[in-house]
Design goal:
7-stranded mixed beta sheet; 13 helices; 3-stranded antiparallel beta sheet; 401 residues; 12 strands; alpha/beta; single chain
Amino acid sequence: MQPLASRMAVMTGEGALAVNARARELECQGRSIIHLELGEPDFHPAPPVNEALKRALDDGKDRYCAVAGVLTLREAIALYLHDTRNLNVSPDSIVLAPGCKIALFLAMMALIDPGGEVLYPDPGFPGYPSITLGLGGVPVPFELSERNHFQPDPEEIAAKITPRTKLLITNSPGNPTGTVYTDDTQRRLAKLAVEHDLIVLSDEIYARIIYGGQFVSMLSYPGMAERTLILDGFSKSFAMTGWRLGYTVAPARIVSALNMLAINSYTCVAEFSQYAAIEALRDRDGATPRMVGEFAKRRQQFIRDLNRVPGFRCQPPEGAFYAWVNIADAGMTAEELCRIMLEEAGVAAIPGAAFGPAGEDFIRFSFASSTANLQEAVDRILRASSAWQNNVARAPSPASR
């Protein structure tokens, strides 16, 4: 029997989906599980969005359409990016895709040759190194460390650039850390990209979910217009996870490549969902700001409550909806703690190593769940913490280390 392609041996899955699968098994056994593992808002699209979808179906918007996406939607995205990020992009620079993962995959396919090196954040979204390996590239991590407030270190990145480096991936606000890159950090990264002729893939899926300050896109910096791709979509900011609708903003020479890849893969995105997405972008009822306001309240309460758990230490994230908890003082591995929380307490969370080696001493919780669920989750964790409280008591204090 013929073997599978060699790329299948190097690509990896996602820890969140593996934990979710086990959590579902326990639920089938009658267990009560609080799901804090998936990055999925517990909101749903605003009613006008659903109404627009129904109207589009009634109007027969269920045909093949433009490969890059319906022009009216691409125009709406361009206006949205101007209004929310002060960017001036052409509708012709936008390519729709059936989800941000497909947008990411095709962008990397268009840019990476075998042996090409890709700089990516660690901890970070697992797809970055997995797709790189699947395409025959070489993933090169740069660390997001707690001592540097999980900001990329431009000096570390500069030291890792070689003649084979093709792509620099940035993710602000970041998954799993919730870090919003500072202006100084982004300016220095942009300068590196220009100096070394790198393409920057700026993953901005959480750009609308920030807790203070103004989001600044990598595309805003000098020299970046011709070398930056923005990845964004509707899953997080508009609570449209199951709609599978993402997009890439790219320079013209890359847009043509993305269109060619679309023709050879998904052909086009469902027409009716694109018309509904136009209504989501208009957000006449202010659904997105209300959702982010609710996340901000949950963030404050959940982080405070998590810091009551023995051995847990967590700083409030600046964006996204994840609590990135340092558990080094708990005296157990993150994997073991997550097993105890799931199997004994019924709380699903993700061991940090699922996001890269730099996440070994961390656990990621999503607070895109109700306040009642978050409070109950911490109560359950506190009850289960007897399994590691003695380890915390024996651990040396920070001052003695």
